[in-house]
Amino acid sequence: MKARPLTLIQDELVDYDKAMERMGDLVAERQRDERPDTLWLLSHPSVYTVGRRTPAAHLPDPSRGIPVVETGRGGQLTYHGPGQLVGYLVVKLAEDEGIVDYVREVELRLVEALGALGLPAERRDTPPGSELLTGVWTSATGRKIISIGMRQSRGVTSHGFALNVDGDLEPWHWAVACGMPDVDMTSLKRELGETMMDKVRAAVAASFEAA
Fold it and tell me: Would you please indicate which residues are annotated as catalytic (active-site) residues?
């Protein structure tokens, strides 16, 4: 991977709608070259986000009480909640780069971060005709630990990834995650035992050359 240092922004719990407003501002600033490439690390209160192609059958029962928000990123249904590290990537791509190229780079950088935390992980290629296998999976147990959904507008990326650290995994069972009914979502806590969020943030920032 080529060097791609990023500016780091860090927040704790940010409402999803407010985060989308701020991300839109960050993207516009990057498109005007008013800010450098940026990684924004944060978490959200419980919310399901869905892409435009998410089937109604994949949505949770409304009685669960968790809001469902349509978003402009790629991919299908994802759950966000406390104990999950979300990273939004606002990066201007080179003329010879596409969003698929950058998503592959994001996967590899996150595999590197998990390795530094002691969890061997891998990205997967999607077989023809299958649901997209974008994201990161544990090597030993074959569980999905990171979801990725991004888009590109006027050469600048937005949205990003969600890494399950030590939050409640039960809400993943109340809907169809990532368009895959049989996916087994996991977390660093489930795979490794106790994990410190601050340590995870530092490992992720380092893997993206973000300071």
Answer: 178
